[in-house]
Write a structure and sequence with these properties.
single chain, alpha+beta, TATA-Binding Protein, 5-stranded antiparallel sheet, 6 helices, elongated
Length: 201
């Protein structure tokens, strides 16, 4: 026996691999941390897509316009008309103001909408309604909550860094970091680098 490696690889230099137990620990940690971060990843990813296109749409609210026809007693004052209109359209909110825009037009202002009442009983309601889940996701993403959320966001960011680093060493050989992984990591790093070079400040 010559002591050469099988397959004629005599003299071929290879990078050392991590011990199997270390890779197993990395895989287990990577897997469990990944599962733990799924919920937050959905929140940040969906909100990120929404906020990225804020110039094209409102990521927090949906605009609406509704039409009604309401009747009230002849000679009723503005307060009575407003109360009748709100009751007819099913609004229990107390208006912040009721005033005459013109002699024939009454405006009722609510927190998230306004109702415009005409002399013939035609009522136009214009306003906005919150996007149920997306508004909450944006609120969290933009860190507009209490200071405690800053710590949650920091832990999430640090965990993502850990997932990225552990992912580099999970697979040995040509398909691992020292093979195709290094090429793909380099390509991924070039995307922000080239963008900054071409369009950055």
């Amino acid at each position: 026996m010559s002591g050469e490696p099988p397959g004629g690889d005599h003299g071929r230099w290879t990078l050392p691999r991590l011990p199997g137990k270390v890779r197993a620990l990395i895989r287990a940690t990577h897997r469990d941390a990944g599962y733990l971060m799924v919920g937050l990843t959905f929140v940040y990813a969906l909100s990120g897509l929404a906020v990225n296109h804020i110039e094209d749409w409102d990521p927090n609210f949906t605009q609406f316009e509704r039409h009604y026809h309401v009747t009230w007693p002849a000679g009723a004052d503005d307060a009575t008309i407003a109360a009748r209109v709100l009751a007819s359209v099913g609004v229990q909110e107390t208006p912040s103001s009721v005033y005459r825009v013109s002699p024939e037009r009454l405006e009722i202002t609510l927190a998230e909408s306004s109702l415009f009442v005409g002399p013939d009983g035609q009522v136009l309601q214009e306003g906005q309604s919150p996007r149920l889940l997306l508004r909450v996701a944006n609120w969290l993403h933009l860190n507009r909550g209490k200071r405690a959320w800053t710590y949650v966001a920091d832990v999430y960011a640090a965990t993502l860094l850990g997932l990225a680093l552990s992912g580099l060493f999970m697979i040995p050989g040509r398909k691992g970091f020292w093979g195709r992984g290094l090429v793909l990591v380099t390509l991924g790093a070039l995307v922000p680098t080239l963008y900054v070079v071409m369009y950055g400040p």
